[in-house]
Amino acid sequence: MNAIRHDFRSDTVTRPSPSMRAAMAEAEVGDDVFGDDPTVKLLEQRMAGLLGKDAALFVPSGTMSNLLGLMSHCGRGDEYIAGQKAHLYVNEAGGAAVLGSIQPQPIAHQADGTLALAEIEAAIKPDDSHYARTRVIALENTFGGRALPMAYMLEVADIAHRHGLGLHLDGARAFNAAAALGLDISTFAAPFDTVSICLSKGLGAPVGSVLVGREDLIASARRTRKMLGGGLRQAGVLAAAGLYALEHNVARLADDHRRARQLAEGLARHAALSVSMPDTNIIWVDSAPELAHGLSVYLAEHGVGVTGGHGQKQRWVTHLDIGDEDVTAALAVVDMYFASGRAPS
User: Fold this and answer.
1) CA 339 to CA 50: how far, in whole Å?
2) Is the bond preceding residue 142 a cis peptide, omega within 30 degrees?
3) Residue 87 needs a FRET pair 20 to 30 A away by CA distance; which of 174, 186, 307, 344 works?
């Protein structure tokens, strides 16, 4: 297998910069399970303050953060509403059902990635012993790289409030969404009771997510984190990377978005490729199956890493380890593929 030189597979592949590594090495630490790690405390306070929430909890992964969010809102036999293609429903190993005994109620996505408001409301169960009790609505923003509008999130929040439900946001790339929408992150997060933020995607930290929200919900999540094995000891070395990311890697997300647009426009020059123009840093590319497979193989042979393309859409993701030269090189490889005669006619 050829080495990947230009890695567009995901923004999770980033490596900590020398400056981030230095911050990690110099971090003041303590035992976080005892509440003694000052760097973890600072990260939690900083994130809660940025999002305008009461409290925050540092956890190892986005999967755990979403699970803790749902388990804070729901008890055994309760229900959450989410999109049919939502990450916390499809891609997190059924954790809410397996570990939280929480029933999912999936709803189909509209073409723009939203959930129809009428369908959300219709899915809320009446107070009847035949049904699981609906406790929380979960949104995802960005969804597939698309930034869902603020007005839409406020409409969903209105439904939640009218029915006495919680509102959770899988905001793994919330800072990307806020940047694309031109919003302060606190304004963006305002409608939600709990928000999960990944540090290890566009923000470039090697590990970690933060669950942010109402004080009682975060207190419940902290207890459940211990139950799930997520209590960490001298975690300040990891939290320091998150603090560095918040200070240095938020404003530069606009560069990732610009490069994604440049990449999408270059790919769209080829009529055989159907390219979604990105809101943020994720591009989806569709084509005939035989072409998608051949292109993915050719890209791999020339050191360009992407996901999909073997019976599914290709996904290209820009991030802080992708520069202008990587975009130029990748587009040159795509151009060579179509010029080589290997592309099916």
Assistant:
1) 49
2) yes
3) 186
